[in-house]
Amino acid sequence: VVHFEHPALPGRLSLDQLPGVEGGLARKEAAGRDDSTGFFVWPAARALSAYLAAHPELIKGRRVVELGAGAGLAGLTSAALGAAEVVLTDLAGTMPLLQRNVDLNA
Prior knowledge:
Layout (H helix, E strand, L loop, with lengths): L1 E3 L8 E3 L12 H4 L11 H12 L8 E4 L6 H8 L4 E4 L6 H10 L2
Parallel strand pairs: 3-4
Antiparallel strand pairs: 1-2
Pfam families: Methyltransf_16
Protein name: Calmodulin-lysine N-methyltransferase
């Protein structure tokens, strides 16, 4: 489980990802398949989530779509910051992990 915290968020977000990933950071080669990139929390997702948390006015009350959400960190951050609606999308094989992460943070 990977955790993301920021003072602007009401609490800590927790995200599950593919087992065996060191330090919670993704490496495409760790999965060995091109279609498995959605099973990780990528450094870019952390950076985007930190930026959004630092600028919640960009999100509050807005509709957000995260295309290729993977583990869903940016979308879950948007929901925690008060987005009016958040839609998370990814490949069908990634959706069970994404749903688990939504449930973890409901």
